[in-house]
Write a structure and sequence with these properties.
The chain is of the alpha/beta class. The protein has eleven helices and twelve strands. The protein has a six-stranded mixed sheet with strand order 2-1-3-5-6-4, with helices on both faces. The chain has a six-stranded parallel sheet with strand order 9-8-7-10-11-12, sandwiched between helices. Helix 5 links the parallel strand 7 and strand 8. The two termini are about 15 Å apart. The protein binds NADP nicotinamide-adenine-dinucleotide phosphate (NAP). The site of NADP nicotinamide-adenine-dinucleotide phosphate has 25 residues, from helix 4, helix 5 and helix 10.
Length: about 290
């Protein structure tokens, strides 16, 4: 445990709820490893108190920055002095830091999502992507797949109006975006030609453990297909268990969680973390997931 002193600088995570967040675990582990005089704390904040909460954090001089999670990733934008181009593209912020001009917001989810994929050898231009769900995380996933140069990205969702807004938000910043919108009823035909399938719905979490896709649907994928589930508890989800059994390439959400955290810390500290420091963060997450 980091020794908290009078000089300790504070980072944290705002959201509702934040009880299950693993961010305090990984950040405090690396502070201890690097002997940094920082502490990272959960900051539960209700939507109705967001404005006063952000103002209050600004008044505390030791507060260097914070992560933002559900439900504030979009709502926090009006309370920031500036946002990075990436945060503007997504219309969502997950990391905020104190600057002389005020709070600066960015988004590290795109970076986090990409890290596990970049370790794989694929000709991304030939890959067709199927993204299940069209919420906040899906925006980061679609932007990341666009950055990766994927051929075509199919977004599967249940609310067409929301999906159209999703499209316009991203397309106004990413004019080359090759994104197509589909209802769930079309998913079978999309899977047959998919090289990457990403679950961004909460289906598969401990609270709603049913898989978003059946074994029969997964069987229609080509053997080189990657099945990426953003969920990291349970590990593995039923979706990834089935993908593993079929010899597909499964990726869970823990790598994304880790690397969005690494990128957030590098943004706050303005320095690059060593592979050893990143390994400490990863180990702390793995331990937290198995306890
Ligand atoms: P969100 O904004 O609430 O979006 C969830 C999406 O899933 C929405 O499009 C929603 O559809 C859809 N959905 C929910 N229940 C469904 C159901 N029963 N059937 C079909 N679709 C359903 O949440 P989010 O922030 O994008 O997060 C989504 C998931 O990603 C969560 O499990 C979260 O923990 C995970 N995540 C992981 C990381 C990581 O670092 N690994 C980062 C961010 C998020 P509607 O639009 O119709 O409501």
């Amino acid at each position: 445990m980091t020794m908290i002193k009078g000089t300790t600088k504070i980072l944290g995570i705002i959201g509702d709820p934040v009880t299950y967040s693993l961010s305090p675990v990984m950040h405090n582990a690396v502070f201890q490893y690097l002997d940094l005089d920082y502490a990272y704390i959960p900051l539960p904040l209700k939507s109705e108190a967001l404005a006063t909460g952000i103002q209050g954090l600004g008044a505390i001089a030791s507060m260097q920055g914070f992560n933002v999670t559900i439900p504030h990733k979009e709502a926090v934008l009006p309370f920031l002095s500036a946002t990075t181009t990436l945060a503007q593209t997504l219309g969502a912020v997950n990391t905020v830091k104190r600057t002389e001009q005020g709070w600066l917001g960015t988004n590290t989810d795109v970076h986090g999502f990409l890290q596990p994929l970049q370790a794989l050898e694929r000709d991304w231009q030939t890959i067709s992507v199927v993204v299940l769900g069209s919420g906040g995380a899906a925006k980061a996933v679609v932007t990341a797949c666009q950055q990766l140069g994927c051929g075509v990205i199919h977004l599967v969702g249940r609310d067409h109006q929301k999906m159209k807004q999703f499209y316009h938000q991203l397309n106004s910043h990413l004019p080359q975006l090759n994104l197509r919108l589909h209802p769930w009823a079309s998913v079978d035909s999309l899977l047959e030609v998919a090289g990457l399938v990403v679950n961004t719905t909460p289906l598969g979490m401990a609270s709603q453990p049913e898989s978003p896709l059946s074994l029969a649907q997964l069987k229609t994928l080509t053997t080189s297909a990657i099945v990426y589930d953003l969920i990291y508890t349970p590990r593995p989800t039923q979706l990834l268990q089935m993908a593993q059994t079929l010899g597909l390439t499964p990726i869970d959400g823990l790598g994304m969680l880790l690397h969005q955290g690494v990128a957030a810390l590098e943004f706050w500290l303005d320095q690059t973390l060593s592979p050893e420091a990143i390994a400490v963060m990863e180990k702390s997450l793995l331990e937290a997931c198995t306890t």
